[in-house]
Amino acid sequence: MRDLAWLIPLFPLIAFAVIVAFGRRAPGQGAYVAIAGMGLAALLSIGIFFEMLGGAAPVELNTQWMVWGNYPLDIGLRVDHLTTIMLLVVTVVGSMIFTYSIGYMHGDPRYPRFFAYMSLFGFSMLLLVLANNLLFLYAGWELVGLCSYLLIGFYFERPSAARASMKAFITTRVGDFFMFLGILLIFFNLGTFRFEEIFAKVHDGALRDLTVGGLPLLTVAAVLLFGGAVGKSAQVPLHTWLPDAMEGPTPVSALIHAATMVAAGVYMVARTYALFFASPETGALHVVAWIGGVTALMAATIAMLQDDIKRVLAYSTISQLGLMMMGLGVLGYTAGMFHLMTHAFFKALLFLGAGSVIHAMHTNDIKEMGGLAKAMPSTYWTFLIGTLALSGIFPFAGFWSKDEILLEAFHHNTILFAMGALTSFLTAFYMFRVIFYTFTGTLRSHDAHPHESPNVMTRPLWVLAIFSILVGWVGLPVGGESRFHAFLRFDGVEAVPFSVGLALVSLAIAGAGILGAAAVYYWKVVPASTLRAAAGPLFALVSRKYYFDEVYGAVFVRGTLWISRAMRTFDVYVIDALVNLVGYAGVGLARFYGVFDLYVVDGLVNLIGGVVGRVGGGLRYIQTGRAQNYLLAIALGVIILLAVGLFR
Amino acid sequence: MHVGLTHFLVVSSLLFCLGLYAMLTRRNVVAILMGIELMLNAANINLIAFNKYVAPAALNGQVFALVVITLAACEAGVGLALVMSAYRNLETIHVDEINVMKW
User: Fold this and answer.
1) Among residues A233, A404, A223, which one has the least CA distance to residue A318?
2) Packing angle between helix A134-152 and helix A111-130, nearest 10 degrees?
């Protein structure tokens, strides 16, 4: 079955083609086609997963694509344990979200187009995950970026959505540029794109002694690659696009901007982990860990003060991605990927729940909601499960994975552990703030009539909720090692053994967060306004998202505009002047040539014609048509010739 | 007076010039044809004379003269037929009036 892995990305691609070709005439206006494509991919992925679980060896399907100079370029898929996890997450979560979209996108004027884009995204993401070389990983990487752009700007009539899509595309491109540099650095030093060959060569110490600008080449290459992940996974300082990306439809936010695409950065780091790990003194991993840690903490603080339900979740996503990066950075290869997997399920669930709420309320503002638990019980319960999972409460999925990251951090770097712990406290706090605002109390908006969403939307919620409860249990340590660790490991990194004490600490931190949120927003022991006043300038700083957007706007946007204006001035006054000069010179020269042509060239031609005409006219009289005249001429000619002959 | 080759050649060239004169000056086609006959006969005299005085043993000159006479007869026949045809169609045999081919 692993040999059929190439079919997995093909199914969504075919679905995409069918929807594009048939539009509204496709089954279910395209929705059924998309779900069929994703569902078949999911079935195959599950099959492969169980095969791998049964101890099957990783396979690689590789064939030569073309030869570039001396370098053969390959096209190929690699199915190993890491890929299997990602396949499972992408296809299962994807299928659920596709199904949910039937209800959420119902009545949208661009309904088939939505499913076409989603299918294209499915293809791109699966290509990214399955690629066995950096080149095709990069191709998939850019394709998911394109789909993200198309789907954020799905409601392109809204200027904010159009701007957000542009922002997302350009910001991630900044990261991609660094990633491309990293890929080239590796390619030109090792002569191959294939992961297997790269890792083998790196393992043999191929790049150990090389330096770039005084820094070890391996570290530079790994950090450049990580630059791509910073952009795609919305890490500081390129995180600003993700909250704006919430302009897209909610299923898009769930699939692309929570579960899969933004996790691609984490996946990429895990995929090329050998490079990071081989960098001298694991310098590249320190960069990953610190960027992840800072991102996690910063995004969590911002999430506390957001009123848009989707933006809270967006910042939460950034924060959790930061945690994953931190996990990878502190040698918690398995922990990071584990959190990626569990996070995909419960964050997709939370986004879909938020979508269900938005669908009912027609607003994103949690301060206008309230008391929705009664009106929307399914949404409430599933959202609560997702929240508990995200907060890291036993026995939900997030508990297991987050605990592992904290455990790894605790054993490697105390400051990072403190940041992670604070993040998880804040996570529990802001998530329960959302719960209390949205589902408890009384409805604050007067013109809303909330109702439960249709079954086609709530059933995927329940499926994801069940996953959110169960999927963490693969991290249950049995005899010192969990099933997940046994399945996915990076050779050379020893997992830190499970510690009940630390698990209790992390549970206590999360509980404290929940209690804190309850004290402020449910029991209202401490009014939120008092806290705000107490925090003072800190509050202003956080509520303005640390002024990232303002600084970027002032430096990069205005700087770019200034440069473009300067360029325009240069263009208008120098380039255009030159072009016009050439133009005028051309016209002047052409006029001169025109005169020359008219009087000299034409004159010569007419002269020749006229001369020939005159001569012909003159000679016409010789031709009389009388044979006797000709005969006379002949006779005279003979006489002359004779005379010449005789008297010479 | 001994009659030699020169005498024959003088007679023949006079005859040729007469024929040529007739051909160039006459308007009547029949007269022109007669001029042509004169010129052919002048050539015949030349042939016979050269045969007699230069190579008496050979008969080439005489035979060739006979051929020329035959040719002249044919030519006269064809020429007169053309004259008849021209006269029937154009009611004239003056060469300066037969100009239908002139543009």
Assistant:
1) A233
2) 160
* Interchain CB distance below 8 Å, A626 and B96: yes
- State both tokens at B80: 């007169």
pTM of the model: 0.76
**What residue in A sits closest to B22 (Cα-Cα)?**
A628
Q: Report d(CA A427, CA A296) in Å as an integer.
A: 10
Comparing C-alpha atoms, which of A107, A506, A493, A500 is closest to residue A273? A493
CB proximity B101 to A under 8 Å: yes
C-alpha to C-alpha distances, A388 to A163, A193, A346, A392, A506, nearest whole angstrom: 34, 42, 9, 6, 13
**To 5 degrees, how large is the angle CA A116–CA A105–CA A307?**
115
The closest CB to that of A631, out of B24, B96, B102, belongs to B24
Q: What is the mean pLDDT of residues A450-463?
A: 89
For residue A391, pLDDT over 60 is answered with yes
Q: Residue A442 has what pLDDT?
A: 84
Which residue bears the tokens 């956080």? A542
Residue A162: pLDDT band (50, 70, 90) is very high
Separation in Å, CA of B73 to nearest CA in chain A: 22
B1 close to A (CB below 8 A):
no
Q: Provide the mean pLDDT of chain A.
A: 90
Compute the 3-state secondary structure of chain B and give helix, strand, coil in percent, each to the nearest 5. 75, 0, 20
**Per-residue pLDDT reduced to its tens digit, A37-55:** 999 999 999 999 999 988 8
Which residues 6+ apart lie within 8 Å of A274 measured at CB? Answer: A198, A199, A202, A203, A490
Whether pLDDT at A480 is above 80: no
Helix (H, G, I), strand (E, B) or coil at A6: coil
Q: Is it the case that residue A251 has pLDDT exceeding 70? A: yes
Work out the burial of residue A560: count CB atoms within 10 Å of its CB; fewer than 13 is exposed, 13-18 middle, 19 or more buried. Answer: exposed
- Interacting residues of A415 by C-beta distance below 8 A, sequence separation 6+: A293
Cα separation, A133 vs A187, whole angstroms: 11
Q: Highest mean pLDDT range out of A56-60, A97-101, A619-623? A: A97-101
Spatial separation of the C-alpha atoms in residues A122 and A114, rounded to whole Å: 12
**Which of B17, B18, B24, B82 is the best mutation test for A, with the most CBs of A within 10 A?**
B24
Closest approach of chain B CAs to the CA of A632, in angstroms?
Answer: 6
What is the distance in angstroms between the Cα of A631 and the nearest Cα belonging to chain B?
7
CA-based angle A18:A109:A155, to the nearest 5?
100
Chain B: residue whose CA lies nearest to A626: B96
**Average pLDDT for residues A286-292, to the nearest whole number?**
94
Contact present, A83 and A130 (Cβ < 8 Å):
yes
State residue A608's pLDDT score. 94
Q: CB-based contacts of A254: which residues, under 8 Å, 6+ apart?
A: A97, A100, A347, A348, A351, A352, A355
The answer to whether A30 and A19 are in contact (CB under 8 A) is yes
H/E run at residue A79: strand A71-79
CB A5 within 8 A of CB A79: yes
Question: How many Cβ atoms from other residues are within 10 Å of residue A583's Cβ?
Answer: 11
Q: Which two tokens stand for residue A197?
A: 């060959």
Quote the CA–CA distance of A271 and A81 in Å, as a whole number: 11
- In eight-state DSSP terms, residue A448 is -
A635 contact residues in B (CB cutoff 8 A): 20, 24
Q: How many helices and strands (H and E) does chain A possess?
A: 29, 6
